[in-house]
Amino acid sequence: MRLGAVPQAGFVLAAAAALLLALRAPAGLAVLGLALFGVLHNVLELRYVAGRFAAVLAGPLLRLLLVLVTGIVFCRLVPPSLVPRPAAQAAEILLAYALLAAACRSGLRGRPLVLAGSGAVLAGAAAGSLAFPAYHFVVLAHLHNVVPLLFLWEWSRGLARGRGLFLALQCGWVLVVPAVLLSGVLDGALAPGTGWTARLAVAYTPPAWLTAGVGLRFLAVFAFLQTMHYVVWVWFLPRHAPDATGAFERRVPALRGGRAWLLGAAVGGLLAVLFAADYGQGRTVYAALASYHAYLEFPVLLMLVLGLAEPRVAAPAPAPAPAPAPASPARALSRPPAPPTSPTSPTTPAPRTAPVPVLAPTEESL
Question: Domain spans of the chain?
Answer without folding.
Answer: 16-305
